[in-house]
Automatic annotation (TrEMBL):
Range of residues in the leader sequence: none
SUPFAM superfamilies linked: Anticodon-binding domain of a subclass of class I aminoacyl-tRNA synthetases
Superkingdom of the source species: Bacteria
This protein's name: Arginyl-tRNA synthetase related protein 1
Listed InterPro entries: DALR_anticod-bd, tRNAsynth_Ia_anticodon-bd
Segments forming domain DALR anticodon binding: 99-205
GO BP annotations listed: arginyl-tRNA aminoacylation
GO MF annotation terms: arginine-tRNA ligase activity; ATP binding
Keywords from the UniProt entry: Aminoacyl-tRNA synthetase, ATP-binding, Ligase, Nucleotide-binding
Length: 205
């Protein structure tokens, strides 16, 4: 069970990610208000979870939760939605192209990682660049959207794809030139793998 899963179990609903996550992975939850339970009691249970750096109770019972490291679910739940976007034009003006190209790029990263000997494993602390943090921030919305009455999948997939394109171009997941593959590359490749699973791709790559 991932930490977001544990948070959802304790709170009774997925918490909502907030902020940019550039410096810290944070969530907000109104579960205490909705469930009509003492906020401090719920906060104490959340503080007891491994990976939670702190919990603050604000206002009438809102919880602000900060994690020690940004989470990443290696096996994200499937999105119950199949977008219908035209294949053409294959330009950045076409959301379908942006999303499918993001999927294709993530698949390519996995192939290159194998060829270049990028090690396995995942250490969240290696994802310190703001570009991959932005991808993690969008991925963190997935549990809440899966239980939402209005998940807004088309907009979500486009935002995830755009964030991943930015990370792919500005913080490459595979080593360049004489650079040795290391833990930071392994962490970025893991992000690519998750993005690949979430974004719908072309029929053939």
């Amino acid at each position: 069970m991932t930490l977001p899963d544990e948070l959802a179990e304790v709170l009774g609903e997925p918490p909502v990610p907030e902020g940019t996550w550039e410096r810290a992975a944070g969530y907000v939850s109104a579960a205490a208000l909705r469930r009509r339970v003492p906020a401090e009691e719920l906060a104490a249970r959340v503080r007891g979870l491994d990976g939670v750096a702190g919990v603050a109770v604000e206002g009438r019972g809102f919880l602000r939760i900060v994690l020690t490291e940004p989470p990443l679910d290696a096996e994200p739940a499937a999105i119950p939605f199949q977008p219908v976007w035209p294949d053409f034009p294959r330009t950045w003006d076409n959301p379908g192209f942006v999303v499918r190209y993001g999927h294709a790029r993530a698949c390519a990263v996995l192939r290159w990682a194998g060829q270049l000997g990028v090690p396995g494993g995942f250490e969240a602390r290696e994802l310190s660049d703001r570009h991959h943090r932005a991808v993690l921030r969008v991925l963190a919305e997935l549990p809440g959207r899966l239980v939402s009455r209005e998940p807004g999948w088309e907009g979500y997939l486009l935002r995830l794809a755009l964030a991943y394109h930015d990370a792919h171009e500005r913080a490459p997941a595979v080593p360049k030139g004489d650079e040795e593959p290391g833990a930071v590359h392994a962490a970025r490749v893991r992000v690519a793998d998750v993005v690949r699973k979430v974004l719908p791709g072309p029929d053939r790559i």
